[in-house]
Amino acid sequence: MSSQEEISKENPPSEQDAAHGAVVTADDPFADPGLPAHQPRKQDIDERSAKRSERMVAILFMVSMLATVAFIASFVAFPVDKNVFVFPLGHVSILHLSLGVTLAVALFCIGAGAVHWARTLMSDVEVADERHPIEAPPEVKQKVLADFAAGAAESGFGRRKLLRNTMFGALALVPLSGVVLLRDLGPLPEKKLRSTLWAKGKQLINMNTHEPLRPEDVVVGSLTFAMPEGLSEHDENFQSEIAKAALMIIRIQPDEIKDKRELEWSHQGIVAFSKICTHVGCPISLYEQQTHHALCPCHQSTFDLSDGARVIFGPAGHALPQLRIGVNADGNLEALGDFDEPVGPAFWERG
């Protein structure tokens, strides 16, 4: 008999060692020591400590709820263009700072509360489970269900109502942060996309000379860009307004205009179309004199300006809107109204 067998016979594993997975065999000189004996936590033997831990977890969940409410309030209260000095970050947007801090606190407190709950109140008894085949026989299923029920009971989820209710409250409020963030995709367009600065009596101003356009300034085969009277490049809203009101002016021999309405809305063959492509809103800047085709440089959408600016090639979905024009008492070209339809690509609010 070997010395290892003698040792095994003289010192058989205790019941506690066997319960924790200790394995001692004669053939293995390096026996599996198993798991150490379970040491109960203070919360396991002292209900007052358990209550303190419960209150701490509840406080963390309630702080998360307050932070979520503060996130929503910050979104409403702080303007997007207000900056404050914060050391050591420097000047930062108070809106972005408050949203980041409150959302971080809300998520951190939920995580910290869950971790503290698991480490102090849920069962921490180590269990050694042997490997088993992939298939699950009925007895394994029963064991899993029994383990789940035991875990639920040990977690105190049903018994500790304060923890459960505050956790539900925190988890229910946090998703509201994501819903509120959808509002930050941009201001609601309302009816802004349906109209431009063009109106009856607005003169056509040359984008290059900033002078009113006269019929004699537009020659056959030329391409001129215009903007509404009263709009200046120094205006704060210039970019948003010119993105809708930019105009293409060309002159075509009246007998070459195929579309009847286009001819009626022109003045002596001078036609005005929106410069904004109806595909994704790129500015159109290429014009073929012989064919009267306007080409968008972004995705090659092509419009026939002699036939109502209809699409003859490319991904654009509809024709360029036309602006009805005439001549005022001073002999300058003027608009006789706004575009008859929204300019640019289609949008979600377009009826």
Structure write-up:
The protein is of the alpha+beta class and 351 residues long. The chain has two domains: 144 residues, no CATH class; 144 residues, 3-layer Sandwich (Rieske Iron-sulfur Protein), CATH 2.102.10.10. The chain contains ten helices and 13 strands. The strands form four sheets. The protein has a five-stranded antiparallel beta sheet with strand order 3-4-5-6-11. It has a four-stranded antiparallel beta sheet with strand order 7-8-9-10, with no helix packed on it. Helix 4 packs antiparallel against helix 5 and helix 4 packs parallel to helix 8. The longest helix is centred in the N-terminal third of the chain and has 31 residues. 24% of the residues are buried.
Strand-helix topology:
Layout (H helix, E strand, L loop, with lengths): L2 H8 L4 H5 L22 H4 L1 H31 L5 E4 L3 E4 H27 L17 H18 L5 H13 L1 H8 L21 E3 L16 E6 L9 H8 L1 E5 L8 H5 L5 E5 L11 E3 L4 E3 L6 E3 L5 E4 L8 E2 L1 E3 L5 E3 L16
Antiparallel strand pairs: 1-2, 3-4, 4-5, 5-6, 6-11, 7-8, 8-9, 9-10, 12-13
Helix pairs in contact: 4-5, 4-7, 4-8
Strand order, largest beta sheet: 3-4-5-6-11
Give the mean pLDDT.
86
Give the total of domains. Answer: 2
General form: elongated
Strand content: 5-15%
- Share of residues in helices: 25-40%
Largest sheet: 5 strands, antiparallel
Rg calculated over all Cα atoms:
38 Å
